[in-house]
Amino acid sequence: xxxxxxxxxxxxxxxxxxxxxxxxxxxxxxxxxxxxxxxxxxxxxxxxxxxxxxxxxxxxxxxxxxxxxxxxxxxxxxxxxxxxxxxxxxxxxxxxxxxxxxxxxxxxxxxxxxxxxxxxxxxxxxxxxxxxxxxxxxxxxxxxxxxxxxxxxxxxxxxxxxxxxxxxxxxxxxxxxxxxxxxxxxxxxxxxxxxxxxxxxxxxxxxxxxxxxxxxxxxxxxxxxxxxxxxxxxxxxxxxxxxxxxxxxxxxxxxxxxxxxxxxxxxxxxxxxxxxxxxxxxxxxxxxxxxxxxxxxxxxxxxxxxxxxxxxxxxxxxxxxxxxxxxxxxxxxxxxxxxxxxxxxxxxxxxxxxxxxxxxxxxxxxxxxxxxxxxxxxxxxxxxxxxxxxxxxxxxxxxxxxxxxxxx
Length: 408
What we know:
Strand order of the largest sheet: 1-9-10-6-2-5-3-4
Distance between the termini: 66 Å
Number of strands: 10
Number of helices: 14
């Protein structure tokens, strides 16, 4: 009996080792060094797909290297117009104005409004300046179209609402006083609801009326999301609203046949549900039948700039309590905090230190097409390439740097 148990143990170990060898062999076969490749996006992606997502975890310096190189290449090969953005529409309108007018002073002001979020970093400002330079070389300028709820604050949305009202000679001291205060102020929420109901009778021009009602509804959607009782509830409401926003703007701005690329937190770019949340990319693929391609960035041995409000108190004991951000390694993909992912160790081990490598997971012999590897809380109904198609692996990234002094 002992010999039989020993035999089966050795047999299972052998099978497991062969499976690991198969995965490592595949990854070594398809790997591309990010910095050395002039063309990273396959021809098939350019030709067949409507929307390309770059799924990141916010706060890593190398995110901006990856995003800019892919966006620059995609622009040269498709001459796309729109960056599909994880920001609200009002913010993207302001951003477009500043980029087109090369107004770096206002760009700084826009970033300053994001203080305490991952977007408040020097790399963001440098990235915008690179887009200005890229636009100088193109007649068809790159524009942002933001489809998110105003998760970073409603001040830009309120400002746009005031501008529309003033265009028609309407002053609104109450709206002006709301500023960015909506999270816990029920009176302000009731007032936004009142404006939304009254908007049905407005005699604005059709485009202004659409925009006015869109922004009011988006504030209400944000309020609904923040008043859910769990992270999963927030994700469900938020991504559902993002999808609804996209559908409205696709129709209003004639985006249906546009090729687009966007940089988002990676969860939003997953093309199948996880934990009961149907993410933005999944909705685009399933409900609108969009051809979606996702690059998912993985991180190892790296540090991430994390807002202090997202860090449990226990971890702050040895930290300065005056800081807005901490640089931590909690967001690495082999850290238990980010969830257990099968075969993530192999992905790390085939990637040299201090490097960025790209792994296309979609070739015919790919084990990722028939197994749910690299997925947290994986559902056995799907495989890795149902969620994303290419893994970009970053090792030893620095954190992003705060845009100003790192103090509350």
